[in-house]
Design goal:
mainly alpha; two-stranded parallel sheet; 2 strands
């Protein structure tokens, strides 16, 4: 009786999760972009492997961390622009 070959975890999935964590801690934005890129690469690799490679949960976690961080960056930049744009508008009204 042969034993099934052990499943291997996708390296891209691990990189995606690590980059997603780094995107929230040490390497803001760049880590998040890496998490998104490697997360999509991992999910493609996993779906093409016919069950030989696992790690979809790691890839999804990296994608979620990456996209949430990018969304927070966009909201932060938008809030910054609206706040200081509003201040400039108020300053022009008072002069």
């Amino acid at each position: 009786m042969s034993t099934p070959a052990p499943r291997q975890t996708s390296t891209y999935a691990v990189i995606s999760l690590v980059a997603g964590i780094l995107g929230w801690t040490l390497i803001p934005f760049l880590g998040s972009i890496g998490a998104i890129i490697f997360g999509h690469m991992a999910r493609g690799e996993i779906s093409r492997s016919n069950g030989r490679i696992e790690g979809d949960g790691l890839a999804v976690a990296g994608l979620i961390l990456g996209w949430l961080s990018v969304a927070m960056w966009i909201l932060g930049i938008l809030a910054f622009i609206l706040f200081f744009g509003g201040l400039a508008w108020i300053a022009t009204l008072s002069s």
